[in-house]
Specification:
heterodimer; A: 329 residues; ABC transporter involved in vitamin B12 uptake, BtuC; two-stranded antiparallel sheet; 1% strand; B: 501 residues; alpha/beta; Rossmann fold; six-stranded mixed beta sheet; 20 helices; globular
Chain lengths: 329, 501
């Protein structure tokens, strides 16, 4: 006859449970493998200088992946994240240039940058959660709007950022590069944020929005806060971009948007919402960075680099799913 | 003074009146049972109290003061907690997180994990010993069984510590020991002076835990009495309504063929699958066999399994004398089975496509056509569509331009181009207007008269009684009673549906 279909209740096994609790583990494994491969082809890439370079280049993507994760938690998406990076980048560069590049102007510019990021996030949140427009299309529209603002602030790329800003980003204190302090600070902030009510509420909303509403959670407000948090982290990403490129560019962040979404998925979060970690997204961003450098180190001809990068990201995605499934089986 | 008094609340969704006049008076320290058949408005009444549905009219008094429950947040603030029949759990979160989600314990800006665990542990401890294997405070809800999830939802409702608690079918998946424990807890809460509304379809549970009972029928409150002063038969009589209780349906009496002469069209024995077990029956050609009982007792699953849309675990099926194994809808259609679902959006209509394309897919499949020629298809489709008095402007208009009733007629017309041998109707009239229903059943009776074997599941008991020659009553995934001839009364149907499984 037909096979029995009644499924026995799933037993919480050791490894499965471990992955369930730490969904970023597959991403961590892939990242370490890629790091090892980088080391094999280019031993210097795993030295302090090499790692510093990697972190310095990809800190912005890590932050943007974190930003994206908070909206993905709630089952939303933000296709304007990269445009917010561009807008904050040109706003702070223009402000610092206008104020003469003093230390005070740098602090002021960062405060303004955070404000701009927050405002953009709230706009996204209102459009998506309060007006109930489709997140994917609504944030695509706001991304064009934000890019338009950025082009108004700075029509052409190239205005240099003041030396105090990018020198600090590339500096060393007590023999340790500044970006490592930034990375540690990021880790502390993320661990604190993970303990807030908002993180849990965002995940609950992403899991079952109707259920969360019936539980008495303010679903609309929670989703708007998720977007606001995303805007703030996008502003932080913009600071890193500015430190790394040392100039303003109204289109600098555009191509980062989908990389941030890819990093979130590589990190083990569910795009449907309700499941994931910010740590995983950080690893996801590093995976993308390591793939790009590996493609370069193995000596891929330049005309093939994009193709190989794309394939490698697909392979990493499949590997992550396989590791997760093996553990669950 | 009543703790909660609801008077004259009503709610309509478009033309469908879900609740025409709901009244309820809830005292502190009592368990007040709400009972009524499918679609009588119980859940709507509860959702109005919980704030997730806004009433069109009427008044809600809490402690004698009129209140507006504008949403679940407002209900929470007013001290009303609810157990949702469809559950409100976050599957990827842990049991303890779910229990505390409506009101997370905080320490400064952070969730106080220790307090959260302690708070959850208090409510989990209430069900100590009956939660079953795999249940743990730090287990995610998606690994739990249905009964364990229901327990979590109960714990979540209890954790609100609200003075007014509403339980909308909280025991449907629980086993005996779990129900007993739950009732112990309810008795304790009663002693504390909490006011509780309890919805259940199980007569034994109602008499075991209830203090008073309010009966709803067709969207209105028809009576309230003390449990001590009433009997199960009396409650069933209220649910059914005096005039209809004993009358065998006249309309059906005309159509019933008592001879039962036709050969067997479809026979199944010991059928088991998701949500049903041990189902055996035979339908003769020219007979309409009704499936009755409360909603979701396995009727739909049996029909879907026969059509190959759900997997069968065990059992044998004979179709017109030959063995038939339902493994896919495609094979079922080729074998001469037809299935019409009440869920048009999911199972019937091909959204956004013209009417002609919606009438002809089965014709295509059964005749293995590869080329669509609109002219001949139109000729084939026209008589099928006209048989149902379908009103439409033209075959090229999109299906969405039709009303729900006419859409369903198109879906049924699909099966009329090449006649099937067996027609499975799965609550086919859900959400369609009265005249369309009349057209539809006239056709169904005509098809039966022409020798088709028909199985009809309907959640509307009047339809079922009026159109079936025999009725199998489902209860807990099994057939518990067969009603034929003069036994096909509303009273018998309800009695069989509401008795303990």
């Amino acid at each position: 006859m037909v096979d029995a279909v009644a499924k026995a209740p799933r037993q919480a096994g050791g490894i499965r449970r471990f992955i369930e609790r730490y969904p970023f583990v597959p991403a961590l494994v892939i990242m370490l493998v890629l790091l090892a491969l980088n080391g094999i082809w280019q031993p210097r890439s795993v030295s302090l200088v090499g790692i510093t370079g990697l972190v310095k280049t990809y800190l912005a993507l890590m932050l943007l992946a974190v930003a994206q994760t908070y909206v993905v938690y709630a089952g939303d998406i933000d296709l304007s994240a990269g445009a917010i990076v561009s807008l904050v980048n040109v706003v702070i560069v223009a402000f610092m240039a206008a104020m003469g590049g003093s230390a005070f102007s740098v602090i002021g510019a960062m405060a303004i940058g955070l404000g701009v990021g927050l405002a953009c996030g709230i706009v996204n949140g209102i459009v998506v959660a309060a007006f109930r427009l489709q997140a994917i299309v609504a944030t695509f529209a706001t991304s064009i709007f934000f890019t338009g603002l950025a082009l108004y602030v700075m029509p052409v790329a190239g205005t240099p950022a003041p030396a105090t800003f990018w020198r600090t980003f590339g500096a060393r204190y007590f023999e340790i590069p500044f970006v490592f302090y930034a990375a540690v600070l990021l880790a502390v902030i993320l661990s604190l944020l993970a303990r807030t009510r908002l993180s849990l509420q965002l995940l609950a909303v992403g899991d079952d929005a109707q259920g969360a509403y019936q539980s008495g959670l303010p679903v609309t407000a929670i989703r708007i806060r998720g977007y606001a948090l995303c805007g703030l982290f996008a502003a932080l990403a913009a600071f890193c971009v500015t430190g790394d490129t040392a100039s303003g560019d109204p289109l600098v962040g555009g191509k980062m948007t989908l990389f941030s979404v890819a990093a979130v998925v590589l990190g083990g979060s569910a795009l449907a919402g309700g499941y994931g970690t910010v740590v995983g997204s950080v690893f996801g961003a590093l995976i993308i960075g390591l793939i790009n450098s590996l493609v370069y180190f193995v000596g891929t001809p330049s005309e093939w680099q994009n193709l190989v990068q794309g394939l490698a990201i697909l392979v990493a995605l499949v590997a992550g799913i396989l590791i997760g499934r093996r553990a669950r089986a | 003074m009543a703790k909660l008094k609801i008077s004259g609340v009503s709610k309509a969704y478009g033309a469908t009146v879900a609740l025409s006049r709901g009244d309820l008076e809830l005292e502190a320290g009592e368990v007040h049972v709400l009972i009524g058949s499918n679609g009588s408005g119980k859940s709507t009444l509860c959702k109005i109290v919980a704030g997730s549905v806004k009433p069109d009219a009427g008044e809600v008094l809490l402690d004698g003061k009129p209140v507006t429950v504008s949403g679940p947040q407002a209900a929470k603030a007013l001290g009303i907690g609810i157990f949702y029949q469809e559950l409100s759990l976050a599957a990827r979160r842990t049991v303890e997180e779910n229990i505390c989600l409506p009101d997370l314990p905080m320490r400064g800006p952070f969730v106080d994990r220790r307090a959260l665990s302690e708070k959850a542990a208090r409510y989990i401890a209430l069900f100590d010993g009956v939660t079953g294997g795999g249940f743990a405070a730090d287990a995610t809800v998606d690994v739990l069984r249905a009964d364990q999830r229901q327990l979590v939802e109960i714990m979540k409702a209890l954790a609100t510590e609200a003075p007014v608690l509403i339980f909308d079918e909280p025991t449907s998946a629980l086993d005996r020991a779990q129900v007993d424990r739950f009732f112990e807890i309810l008795r304790r809460l009663k002693a504390e002076g909490r006011a509780m509304v309890f919805i259940s379809h199980r007569m034994d549970e109602i008499f075991a835990i209830g203090d008073s009972v309010t009966v709803l029928r067709d969207g209105r409150t028809v009576g309230t009495s003390r449990i001590a002063d009433t009997t199960p038969a009396e409650v069933v009589r209220l649910m059914v309504g005096e005039e209809q209780a004993q009358a065998a349906p006249a309309a059906a009496a005309e159509t019933v063929k008592t001879d039962g002469a036709g050969p067997v069209g479809l026979a199944v024995s010991a059928l088991a699958g998701p949500g049903f077990a041990g189902v055996s029956f035979a339908v003769r050609q020219g007979e309409i066999l009704g499936f009755g009982g409360l909603h979701g007792q396995g009727q739909s699953s049996v029909l879907r399994a026969l059509f190959g849309a759900l997997p069968l675990a065990a059992g044998a099926v004979t179709l017109k004398g030959g063995a038939y194994r339902p493994h896919s809808p495609r094979a079922a259609i080729r074998a001469g089975l037809a299935y019409v679902s009440g869920d048009r959006g999911r199972d019937g209509v091909i959204q956004g496509r013209p009417i002609l394309e919606n009438v002809t897919p089965i014709h295509f499949l059964r005749n293995r056509l590869t080329l669509a020629r609109p002219g001949p298809l139109r000729d084939k489709a026209t008589p099928a569509v006209e048989a149902l008095h379908t009103r439409f402007a033209g075959f090229s208009h999109p299906i969405g331009s039709l009303s729900g009733g006419n859409q369903q007629k198109i879906v049924i017309a699909r099966w009329l181009i090449d006649r099937p041998d067996v027609l499975l109707l799965d609550d086919p009239t859900k959400g369609i207007d009265l005249s369309a229903k009349a057209d539809l059943f006239a056709l169904v009776r005509k098809l039966a008269a022409e020798g088709m074997a028909i199985v009809l599941y309907s959640s509307e008991d009047a339809e079922l009684l009026a159109n079936s020659d025999r009725i199998l009553v489902f209860n807990g995934g099994r057939v518990t009673r067969e009603l034929a001839g003069a036994d096909r009364t509303r009273f018998n149907l309800y009695e069989a549906a509401y008795e303990a499984a």
